[in-house]
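Bench log. Compound arrived from synthesis this morning; before running ITC I wanted a structural hypothesis for how flavin-adenine dinucleotide sits in the protein. Inputs:
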Amino acid sequence: MQHRIIVLGAGYAGAIAAGRLAKRLHREDVSITLVNAEPDFVERVRMHQLATGQHLKPRPFSEMFAGTGVELRLAKVTGVDADRKAVTVLDAEGTEELEYDTLVFALGSGWNDQGVPGTAEHAHEIASRPGALRLRERLARLEAGEPVVVVGGGLTGVEAATELAEARPDLDIALAARGALGDWLSPKGRGHLRKVFGRLGITVHEHAAVTAVAADHVTTADGASLPAAVTVWTTGFAVHPVAQATTLEVTGTGQIVVDRSMRSVSHPDVYAIGDAAMVTGPGDKPLRMSCASGVPTAWQAADAIAARLTGGKVPTTPLRYFNQCISLGRREGLIQYVTADDRAVRAALTGRLAAVYKELVCKGAAWSIANPTLGMPTRRRRVVQEPAQAASTVQAAA
Ligand SMILES: Cc1cc2nc3c(=O)[nH]c(=O)nc-3n(C[C@H](O)[C@H](O)[C@H](O)COP(=O)(O)OP(=O)(O)OC[C@H]3O[C@@H](n4cnc5c(N)ncnc54)[C@H](O)[C@@H]3O)c2cc1C
């Protein structure tokens, strides 16, 4: 009997975990099914580029996973029964239940409208490809001088505002931030951000929490009205609702609570990675939703599953930050170096070199997805026992 592993979601985390599992476990012993709603990989970190009209390289999963042993299942996950160990999926043929022995939950996240009135009706989002394409189409119809407000002064808002301003210098771009612009950055990083925003002609509204969105303006907490033919909403991400509807232990926001090996604290056959997981990192702080966190959580989960199935010792993948890589359009960037728990240190790389660095990071992430089983040695081991009874014996296979 093969051990059935199902990975839900082929984003950065799920795709990497599936590829790594295929590299770690003997094909005769396991089946690895990767379930994803879309037939190709979505580079979420480039959604602001897609929204501003840039072409993104197509990355079909059928090519990426060909010959890897990972079976791709194109379907929408509609439910997980963690007690019966079954997943419900929906595709053109209808609904089907898939049973698993081990589940890796990596359904990621979408935009978070924070319940602000008018947001769902009037604002645009760039957390998903449909959202970015909708914004792209709307921007194409805007005439010179029309106002665009980007709401949210975090990494996504900063990247979106600068990308927009660079691509469409004819528009009147503004950013509304709850705090001060780049207030989490080092003095050098903050200074650079202000300089680039100034050069690109972006108006910054600081300490301006947006409390309502209408078709042609947004309202801030102090009652000000900012004209907005288009509002781009970037105030954080919300996780997929599927997990919250299960008996898995989740946080108030629906992230699955996991231990250091990414294993659910309530259901040992379930692992959660990427944005879907609540992972405690250095300094006992939760990891932030990002590829920077998601990729090492995928390595950790895959290695832990492989070790437990083969009776090996569960390795500990470092979960820490090194830098925040921020694009400021295509020609400018900011690499803010940080402590292990993501606090800015003095050093920061700026300018053209930072833009190149950021581009290499994005390319590297996409490369490792597009070549899921390359770049690491093959060490396929035989499954010796069910995970719950894993002993310390390991039978290495060729
Ligand atoms: C504009 C933008 C810029 C960003 N820039 C950066 C950056 O510079 N650095 C960084 O570290 N992070 C960045 N992020 C954040 C980063 O993209 C996410 O944290 C990351 O994508 C999370 O990876 P994931 O695998 O957990 O989820 P996702 O990448 O969201 O993947 C989830 C997968 O699950 C699939 N899925 C979802 N629901 C279902 C369902 N019901 N059924 C089947 N399949 C489903 C999706 O199609 C997708 O393939 C950025 C995000 C955005 C939007």
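What the model suggests: Residues 86 and 99 are 4 Å apart (CA to CA). The pocket of flavin-adenine dinucleotide is lined by residues 9-14, 35-38, 42, 44-45, 47-48, 76-77, 106-109, 126-127, 156, 159, 240, 274-276, 289-292, 294, 325 (CB under 6 Å).
ITC booked for Thursday regardless.
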